[in-house]
Amino acid sequence: xxLAGLLPQRRQASSDASTSNGGLKYTALHxxxxxxxxxxxxxxxxxxxxxxxxLSVGDSHKWTREKASLFDxxxxxxHRLCGPGAAPLLEKITPSSTASLQxxxxxxxxxxxxxxxxxxxxxxxxxxxPELFYLVTNAAxxxxxxxxxxxxxxxxxxxxxxxxxxxxxDWGLVALQGPxxxxxxxxxxxxxxxxxxxxxxxxxxxxxxxxxxxxxxxxSEPDTPILISRAGYTGEDGFEISIPPALTIAFxxxxxxxxxxxxxxxxxxxxxxxxxxxxxxxxxGHDLDDKTTPVEAGLSWIVHKDRRASGxxxxxETILRQLRPVNDGGSAPKHRRVGLIVEGAPAREGAEIVNPxxxxxxxxxxxxxxxxxxxTLGKNIAMGYVKxxxxxxxxxxxxxxxxxxxxAEVVQMPFVKSRYWKPATGTSPS
Length: 430
What we know:
Blueprint: E1 10-12, E2 19-20, E3 24-25, H1 30-35, E4 38-43, E5 46-52, H2 57-66, E6 68-72, E7 77-82, H3 86-93, E8 105-112, E9 119-129, E10 132-137, H4 142-154, E11 164-167, E12 172-177, H5 181-191, E13 207-210, E14 226-230, E15 238-243, H6 248-259, E16 264-267, H7 269-278, H8 305-310, H9 316-323, E17 336-342, E18 352-355, E19 363-374, E20 379-386, E21 396-401, E22 404-411
């Protein structure tokens, strides 16, 4: 593989998704959505299904929690970074220990602005080899992320070596989520001619390349491998599967057939949003932005222990100062992300959060960034930012909903217990 030298080099794996419908892009599965009764809406520059005709958003949410759902997340941007300079670059622009990340393991992280430590975008980083990394970023941030990475690659410390950057346009990406996900995917792999994959040994945060022999055409060469990552955005056990363009429709259809309608259904953005909110997960542009640091966003855990000691990443001075106690020279964050249970009507994005204990009982201390009724809990849940120390669990609050003050309480997240497949459980997700 030819590596880039001093200047940033970006290869397109193929042309970007076709555009129509008023300039909106289509994922590779667009026709599958339409033929399956998908209600299409604009999202992140793409035409995406918000729900399907066979299930309401609430029913689709419950189906995912009880059985399994398949989400098209092909609008997300997939990248590869390769070369001896790739790990040092990632250590500079993120607070994560990418240099020590094990092969076929992933970590949630964030691209950071220099000095301020504001979040450019959140990303999942996976190490595929000694000098090869796979990243997934948000569709709505694509233009900003591309400009950011071009600049960071161009002005990096070139003494670490070359970097090659590839954007995997037109590759498929689907998320299989729910307690029946592993059973369905295992059957799909076996019937696709894969015999050496035991998904029980693939844990949350790990991945594996798998070659599907079922779809081999005339050529004697095997198909390009798909990448299976045990991950997800719902809090359930599940997988995200990166699929080369030639196989996206075929493998997705095969997966749906292996699951059967009694176990597996397509799901859209509506259920995905309520599921991720129950799981306490952020949506960029709502719960995260470039003026908010990981500490303020409740993501201190992505600043790994060795990075706290060594620093050297963008915004490190600001972020590490926020992590230190004030009596040790630290600086308290100006606001913190919290979870809220809200009585009465659901609180939506933009609703003001009020401190009922303030002298005038009307002090605005923050705003809601995401909110909806929780189908699992039967309560109204929300995320937002408040001034410390009001971020502590158990703190009573009020939220202004359509001009009325509704009682609320700060609670720990996730709202619904996650059920990831981890080694400590041995036989079941937790």
